[in-house]
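Hi team,

Below is the intake form for 30S ribosomal protein S15 from Candidatus Enterousia avicola. Please confirm the fields before the structure is written into the shared record.

FORM ID: S-0412
PROTEIN: 30S ribosomal protein S15
ORGANISM: Candidatus Enterousia avicola
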Amino acid sequence: MSITKEKKSELIQAYKTTEKDNGGSAASQVAVLTERIRNL
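The structure came back. Fields below:
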């Protein structure tokens, strides 16, 4: 099952490295991928 847009936004907000980060930083991407792996 895929993660919801809301959950993805929560993860990006929690792990963003700068105020302008919209999910492109390594930390944000790792957080999203980790959550996707947990849902397998």
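SUMMARY LINE: The chain has one domain: 5-38.

Thanks, M.
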